[in-house]
Amino acid sequence: MRTLAAISLGLALVVGAGCNKDNRAPANGSGASVGTAGRTDSSISNGDKDFVRDVAEMNMAEVELGRLASERGSGSDVKQFAQMVVTDHTAAGDKLRAYATQRNIDVPAELDGKHRDLRDKLSAKQGLDFDRDFADAMVDDHQKLVDKLESRIDKDTLTKAKVENKNAPDAQVKATAVSPEKSDDANTQALNQWAADTYPTAYAHLQAAKALRDGVKKRATN
């Protein structure tokens, strides 16, 4: 629990620094659909649009499942991790929606079928059963998000960041900064920058989720 607290503090500083760069992002972190305000830009590639929608869906799922765990989690470690997820993914989602709004890209207004089923499954659980299934879901979902973000990050800085954390225990991984993959398209470059800004926190969340999963398993055997 002490290591999770250290991660939460470190990630809060990372997210806080990012938020200071742009305080115009919407305050609502619920994943509500972006309206038609903002400019229509036909130059936005389909790849960028698909990336925005896919990552917005993943991010919204993290927030909703985190809120559920804040209410239903039986362990203090689960509740602490869940609150960290809600805080950090709300901040990342606000920035992504700001990007989407400026370019008139619609983002999902609700969870897809897979994540609705997962939420409903977790809602029916309690105690250690809930904690175990939530921790497993957080590892799986954060791995998918990290993989998605890595497609937009400069490979040299990505490799360097992973090397720096290679021998660190899961719960002590640092939120190491990376650089975006370069693009001549200004819209793509801005999206790549968002991915690079978001990646360190998402990667540290993944490692913290693995540590949480191990901790829950240990509790279950005691």
- The number of strands is 0
CATH superfamily: Ferritin, core subunit, four-helix bundle
**Poorly predicted tracts of residues:** 5-40
Beta-strand percentage range:
under 5%
Biggest beta sheet summary: none
- What structural class do helix, strand and pairing data support? mainly alpha
Number of domains: 1
Distance between the termini: 16 Å
Key traits:
222 residues, Ferritin, mainly alpha, globular
Your description of this structure?
The two termini are 16 Å apart. With 222 residues, this protein is mainly α. Helix content is 70%, strand content 0%. The longest helix is centred in the last third of the chain and has 36 residues, at 186-221. It is globular, with a radius of gyration of 17 Å. The model is unreliable at 5-40 (pLDDT under 50). It has a single domain (2-21, 42-221), classed as Ferritin, core subunit, four-helix bundle (Ferritin), CATH 1.20.1260.10. It is built from seven helices and no strands.
In short:
With 222 residues, the chain is mainly alpha-helical. The chain is built from seven helices and no strands.
Topology (elements, then pairings):
Layout lengths: L1 H20 L24 H27 L3 H27 L10 H11 L3 H24 L4 H10 L21 H36 L1
Helix pairs in contact: 1-3, 1-7, 2-3, 2-4, 2-5, 3-7, 5-7
